[in-house]
Design brief:
By secondary structure, the protein is α/β, with parallel strands linked by helices. The protein has helices at residues 16-23, 40-49, 51-63, 78-85, 87-107, 147-150, 175-191, 210-220; strands spanning 110-116, 121-131, 153-161, 201-206, 231-236. It is built from 8 helices and 5 strands, in the order H-H-H-H-H-E-E-H-E-H-E-H-E. It has a 5-stranded mixed beta sheet. Strand 4 (201-206), helix 8 and strand 5 (231-236) form a beta-alpha-beta unit. It starts with 15 loop residues before the first helix and ends in an 18-residue tail after the last strand. Pfam families: Ribosomal_S11.
């Protein structure tokens, strides 16, 4: 009967140099500090007088790094500082700010304020605040005016009432006076070239006099066809008294 031959163990052959290299521990830590080495005696003496430094140094030793020295910190390049603080950058910033202000002024609408009382009607046409040299109706240009006049800010373009067109006393509060006043103001706006700078118009009503209805009729009629398409909003700014002082007694005739 044949005997069973056991399997022969496969022997691994490793040379002595490779075995020594595999058996030796591999250092995986690397120092992060670039400071020059200092003696342990100096650091221990300094830590005796500064407890915070002693605590920080022990923490750094556990983490394997030390804080960078002053020699490693580099100042910002002079070219970057010159680019930031130079006159060209300041001029560019001013130009950008002016363009933003100009864009914001163009987006703001013109306003026609209507104050309609029982005695008179006042119309005020205003624009977003801008220098007088950029306002055509101001009569101030960049060539024939002083620097002080050019820096003036203009917002009110027209301000008229029924008395400015010839109505007197009780006639100033009539419907006809308010109608003629509104037609005259719209004609002045068109003749003085104020429509060129106006993209949007807001009508702000105040009061419940006869002029309120008259202004509405003019804007919807043939006199208002030049500005009717540019009206973006109609607002009511009438002041309502809540409480306050006692009103005058009502007038009774007869």
């Amino acid at each position: 009967m044949a005997s069973i031959t056991p399997h022969r163990r496969v022997a691994t052959f490793i040379c002595a140099s490779c075995r020594h290299r595999l058996a030796s521990p591999v250092s995986t830590h690397r120092a992060f500090s670039t400071n020059p080495p200092s003696s342990a005696e100096d650091s221990s003496i300094a830590s005796l007088f500064n407890p915070a430094q002693r605590t920080q140094s022990s923490t750094n030793k556990r983490r394997g790094f030390s804080p960078p020295s002053a020699s490693n910190t580099r100042p910002a390049p002079s070219s970057i500082i010159a680019a930031i603080d130079g006159p060209s950058s300041v001029a560019q910033a001013q130009h950008l700010e002016e363009s933003r202000n100009l864009g914001s002024r163009e987006d703001q609408p013109h306003r026609l304020h209507v104050l309609a009382t029982k005695h008179n009607t006042h119309l005020t046409f205003v624009q977003p605040p801008r220098p007088a040299s950029q306002t055509a109706s101001s009569g101030i240009s960049a060539t024939n005016s002083s620097a002080t006049d050019q820096k003036k800010v203009v917002d009110v373009l027209l301000s008229l009432s029924a008395g400015n067109i010839g109505f007197r006393k009780a006639g100033r509060g009539s419907y006809d006076a308010a109608y003629q006043l509104t037609a005259f103001v719209l004609k002045q706006i068109q003749e003085k070239g104020m429509l060129r700078d106006m993209s949007k118009l807001e009508v702000v009503m105040r009061g419940f006099g006869a002029g309120r209805e008259a202004v509405t009729k003019v804007l919807l009629g043939s006199e208002g066809r030049g500005v009717r398409d540019r009206i973006s909003a109609v607002k009511d700014a009438t002041r309502l008294k809540i409480g306050g002082t006692r009103s005058p007694r009502p007038r009774r005739l007869g």
